[in-house]
Amino acid sequence: MVHSDSDPPLLNHYGTLLCHSTQCDEPQTRVTMEECQLPLIDLCDLGSDDEMVRRACAAAICKASSEWGFFQVVNHGISSQLVDKMRSEQVKLFRAPFETKATSGLLNNSYRWGSPRATCPNQFSWSEAYHVPLTKVSDEACYGDFKSLREVMTCFAAAMSELSRLLAGILTENLGHWKQASISNICDETTCFLRLNHYPACPISPEIFGLVPHTDSDFLTILCQDQVGGLQLMKDSKWVTVKPNKDALIVNIGDLFQAWSNDVYKSVEHKVVSNATTDRYSIAYFLCPSYDSLIESFVKPSIYRRFTFREYREQVQEDVRKTGYKVGLPRFLLKGSEDLTTTTTTTESNTRLYIPSITAKS
Ligand SMILES: C=C1C[C@]23C[C@@]1(O)CC[C@H]2[C@@]12CC[C@H](O)[C@@](C)(C(=O)O1)[C@H]2[C@@H]3C(=O)O
Ligand SMILES: O=C(O)CCC(=O)C(=O)O
Ligand SMILES: [Fe+2]
C-alpha cells in the first residue's frame, strides 16, 4: 500500500530539507547487506527442571548481550493471538486521518512524525510513532474512539514489562550486581514506555531512513516487528539486516545497561531502512529507570561517570536539539578512559562514536 503524502506529510518535509539544507553531510552509500540470524534463545529452557539447562540459557542471553547487543527470544510467554490483536489495532490506529492522530489527544498526545529537529536529509526518519508511558496505557481518556485498543495494549504492555524485568534480572545477576541493586526496583511506570512505530512505504528513494541510526537510551528494549523487515544493526563495523522471525521478539541492550555493566553489555547502533512498496509496523517496549536513578557501574574503575537518568535524557535531547544528532554515552566517559581505552570511528549518521576497547574492563 502506498500512502498519499498528506498522511503524515513526510514528502513535503523531506523535500524542504533537500532544498534548504546548506551544510549537508556527505550522501551515504547504502551497501546491501546479507540477512543475519541473530542469536536465538528459547526461553522455555529457563523453566527447565535441569539446572544446567537453565544456566546455559542464562549464559546464552549474557553472551549475546555482550557480543551482539542484540538477540531474539522464542517461547517468551506472549501469545501469538495477543501479538496479532495488538498489530491489527495498531494498523487501525495509524490508518486514522493525520488530524485525528496528531490533534485529538490520542495516547497522551504522544504522536510524532518525521524528524522535527532534522537539519539535513541524513537526519530524517520516514516514519510516524506514538510514544506512550506505562502510566497512561490503561487510561480511558487516552483512547477516544479507539476503545478496543485499550484492553489489548494494557495486556501487551504488562506482558512486555514482565519479560523485560526477567531478562534484566538475568543480565544483572551475571554481573554479580544483584546483591547491590536490582533494575526492577529502580524501573518506573512513568519512564518505561511503549513506542508504536509505523514506517509508510517510501517510493521515492531507498536512501531514506525509516528510522535514523541510533542507540536506545534505556536499559533494554523488546521489539515486536512484522514480517516486512528493514531493521539493521552494527556488527563488527558492518550493517547487517535482521531476518524477521514470526515467533520471535527481538531484544537489544540500551545505553544504561552498557554504562551499568562497564561495557560488558553493548548498546549497539541500529536503524530501519525504508521499503519502496510495503508499509512496516513495529512495537518497542523500553525499560527505563525513574528519572532520579543513579546509573553507575559497580565494577571499578568505571569507564563512565555516575549520572542520573534525568541528566542522560536531558543531554540527549539537548544534543539532538542543537545538532540533530544524539551523542549518547561518549558524553559521560571519564577523563582518562577516553584517552586510554577508546578509539574513534565515524558512523553512518556521521556521529563520532567512541569505542571502548576490550582492555578497558580488566
Ligand atoms: C533524533 C533522535 C531521537 C532519538 C535519538 C535520535 O537520535 C534517533 C532515535 C530517537 C530514539 C528512538 C527510540 C527512543 O524513543 C529514543 C528515546 C531513543 O533512544 O532513540 C529516541 C531518541 C529521543 O527521542 O531522544
Ligand atoms: O522498528 C524497528 O525495527 C526498530 C525501532 C527502534 O529502533 C526504536 O523504536 O527505537
Ligand atoms: Fe531503537
What features would you describe in this structure?
The structure is a single chain. The strands form 4 sheets. The chain has an 8-stranded mixed β-sheet with strand order 2-3-11-8-13-6-5-4. The protein has a single domain (33-292), classed as Jelly Rolls (Sandwich). The chain is an alpha+beta fold and 362 residues long. Helix 2 (51-67) links the parallel strand 2 and strand 3 (70-74). The chain has helices at 10-20, 51-67, 80-94, 98-103, 106-109, 147-175, 183-186, 255-260, 309-323, 337-341; strands spanning 35-36, 40-42, 70-74, 111-113, 128-133, 193-199, 209-214, 220-225, 231-235, 238-242, 249-253, 270-273, 280-287, 294-295, 307-308, 342-346, 352-356. Bound molecules: the ligand C=C1C[C@]23C[C@@]1(O)CC[C@H]2[C@@]12CC[C@H](O)[C@@](C)(C(=O)O1)[C@H]2[C@@H]3C(=O)O, 2-oxoglutaric acid and fe (ii) ion. The site of the ligand C=C1C[C@]23C[C@@]1(O)CC[C@H]2[C@@]12CC[C@H](O)[C@@](C)(C(=O)O1)[C@H]2[C@@H]3C(=O)O has 10 residues, from strand 7 and helix 9.
The main pleated sheet reads as: 8 strands, mixed
Strand order of the largest sheet: 2-3-11-8-13-6-5-4
Reading the helices and strands in chain order gives: HEEHEHHHEEHHEEEEEEHEEEEHHEE
Number of discrete helical segments: 10
The helix-and-strand class reads alpha+beta
CATH superfamily: B-lactam Antibiotic, Isopenicillin N Synthase, Chain
Assembly type of the shown chains? Answer: single chain
CATH architecture: Sandwich
Number of DSSP E strands: 17
User: In one word, what is the shape?
Assistant: globular
Count of separate structural domains: 1
List of distinct ligands in this structure:
the ligand C=C1C[C@]23C[C@@]1(O)CC[C@H]2[C@@]12CC[C@H](O)[C@@](C)(C(=O)O1)[C@H]2[C@@H]3C(=O)O, 2-oxoglutaric acid, fe (ii) ion
Overall helicity: 25-40%
Q: How far do the termini sit from each other?
A: 53 Å
Radius of gyration: 20 Å
CATH C-level category: Mainly Beta
Strand proportion, as a percent range, falls in 15-25%
GO molecular function, one term: gibberellin 2-beta-dioxygenase activity
Keywords: Dioxygenase, Iron, Metal-binding, Oxidoreductase
EC number: 1.14.11.13
Domain Fe2OG dioxygenase: 188-289
